[in-house]
Structures are given as structure tokens and as C-alpha cells.
Amino acid sequence: MFCRECGKELSESENFCNKCGARRPEKLIPDPIVEEQPKKEGFSKLFKLFKVRHESENENAIISLQFKLEKTCECAESIRTIAMSPNGKYFVTGHSKDGGLTIWDASTFKEVKDLCSDRIISVAFSPDSNYIVASDSFIEKKLFSETRSYYINVYAIKSGEGIIGLDCGSHNGFCDSLSFSPNGKRIVGIRGGTPRLWNAKDGQQLLEFPKEAEKIIFHPKENKLISFYNDVISIWDEDSAEEIEKIVSKGDSTSTANFKSIVFSANGQYLAAGTNCGKIFIWNFKNLECIKGLQVADGNEELYSISFNPRLNNVVAFSTNESIKIWDMKGEKEIKKLSLENSFWVSFTPDGKSLLAESGKKVIEWSVTKEM
């Protein structure tokens, strides 16, 4: 409390101000408040205007990226499938010829652990990076014969133990194109050519889709799935397996472009698809308008894998029979070509600062730096 005459601070026991003699006020006078001075927005507004104008002027500028070879690791067996963890800490390789599953440290490219010794068909990480789902197979030997059986299991990264097996019913075919839903509650995969949806908690099959597919993925933001078969992309409702919409590819006058790969941008705004004739298509997923259709490779090259850069949505990497190519889709220009034959998987890391690709028994990493 303060004296209302001279402003001197008074203790609780003082009835008179010992400086000016004024009587203690009956009502308390609150501590003085220093009002915050209004910010001068002139420079701030000017900077914002400059920033917006600068960004606008550079929207159509061709992006220049530098790629530097950083690390390489080599597996004992050929890589059949590979996946990067959403937190960027690990990647896992699945191998043919009963080579099993191997988890790698993404920062050192050192082997962390082996999870099993079976032949691996497909693998994917959970959104929290704590689990892996993998389809594997092994040979059951009997007295006069041997049979290959196929299974789908979920493994815990920390312990390396299998914690649940997915219900596959009586169908014994291999399962491909596995992935977790963005909330981690469901798993989708293609078994015997048919997409199926499982409960990730108890492994029970929830839905079977009515059409064949070669690949199927979840939308990163909406309750939808997208699959393709030959020249048709289908969009599905996740809860009912009902086909909502479909997209038919556009080839040239003499042929149809069959799809070979599909991927969403990190924000789910764009859908990209690669074909068997070197073409890439990009749609605005909100209205399914095809905003790009470019010949990015020779007509005999298949685009096996596509990846958006999470920091630069208009930068796309894809693998072909002969190389890894990186394109600025807005500028419609090739940024970089990396010589790497028969790479079936390419992916930017979650932070967009590195690019990974596989080829044969090897996994290669390049650092990515941007220059305008």
C-alpha cells in the first residue's frame, strides 16, 4: 500500500505516513501499474511486407539443391522392402532368401538388432515409431514335402519381440503394401491381391475391400485410403471400404499409363503417382484436379517409388530403372540426377534434410542443402 499524498510505501502497521504525515487511507491503493507501451509497428509491418513480397517473387524460382553422399551400409542379403521411422531415428530393412528384419540407426548407419530370420515381403513403422508390422514367410518341412507359410506380425522395437499376429483366416498368400493408419489403430495391407484392414490392437480383420489392388496407403489427415490397380486409382472410405471416387490415368494416343507408385505430401494436400512410362501426375486432393502431368523419365522407365520433401512440397524424388531423380515440380525442372540402378525405394527423411535410397544390398544417404 502507498501514501495517497506523497506515494511513499506504507507498512501494514502504519496509520500515518512518516514522511508527509498524511493519514493512512481507508481503502487500499493498489500498486502502481506500468502500462505497456504500444508497439511501434511501422518497421514490423514493413518487414512483413518485404518478407511476403520476397516469398512471392521466389515462388516460381527454380530451387537449387545440393546432394552430398554421406553414408552407406551393406546388408548380408538383398533388400526386399525398407521403411523409415516417422521420428527419423531408425530405418528397417526386410530381406529376401530368409534374411530377416534388421533395424538400423539412421544417424550412424549401424545395425541395432535383428528381429527374425524369415523371408520378408513388406514392412512399415507405427506413427509413434515404437512398433513394426511385417509380412514374413518361412518353410515348414514335413517328412516328404515342404510348404511355405505366410504370416503378418507386429514387433516391438525396444524388445524386438513379436507382440501380435494379424488374423489371416484361411488365406495363405503373401501380404504386401503394409502400413499403419495415422492414429496407429489400424493396419492395411494387400493379401492375395485384395486389400484388407486389421485392428492393430488385437489383430482381428475388420474389412475386406471389394476390388483388387497393387498398392494401398492411408491419407495422412483424413479417414480415407487410396489404392491403384493398373491404370485406375481408387479412393476409399476407411470405415466402410466403400469406393468414394476413382481416377483413370491418361496415357498417350497409343497406350495407357499404368500406375506403379503413389504417395501423399506430408500435409495431405497433394497426391502423386508414378507410371510405367516415365510420367508423374500430381493432383490437388481436395478437388482431384490434376495440376501436373510431366514426362520426367524415358518412356521405358518405371517410377518405382516417389517421395515429397517435407520442407519443400514442390520437390519430389523418384526412383527409376537407372537412377534417382529429383524434380522441382513447380518450376518443371530436373534439379538433380543420382546414378543408382534398380532402386525400388527412395525417401526423404522426416526433416527433409537427407535423402535415402536402396539398391541391391545397400542403403545410401545423401545430405540435402538448399540454395536459392
Overall mean pLDDT score?
84
Shape verdict: globular
* Radius of gyration using CA atoms only: 29 Å
By CATH, the architecture is named: 7 Propeller
At the first level of CATH, the class is Mainly Beta
What is the succession of H and E elements?
HEEEEEEEEEEEEEEEEEEEEEEEEEEEE
Low-pLDDT ranges: 26-41, 45-60
Kindly identify the CATH topology: Methylamine Dehydrogenase, Chain H
* Number of separate strands: 28
Quickly count the helices. Answer: 1
Please identify the structural class as seen in this structure. Answer: mainly beta
Write a concise keyword list for the protein shown above.
372 residues, mainly beta, Methylamine Dehydrogenase, Chain H, 4-stranded antiparallel sheet
SSE layout and pairing:
Elements (H helix, E strand, L loop, with lengths): L40 H18 L5 E11 L4 E6 L5 E6 L4 E6 L5 E6 L2 E7 L5 E11 L4 E11 L5 E4 L9 E6 L5 E6 L2 E6 L5 E4 L6 E4 L5 E6 L2 E6 L5 E6 L10 E6 L5 E6 L3 E6 L4 E7 L9 E4 L6 E5 L3 E6 L4 E7 L6 E3 L5 E6 L2 E10 L1
Antiparallel strand pairs: 1-28, 2-3, 3-4, 4-5, 6-7, 7-8, 8-9, 10-11, 11-12, 12-13, 14-15, 15-16, 16-17, 18-19, 19-20, 20-21, 22-23, 23-24, 24-25, 26-27, 27-28
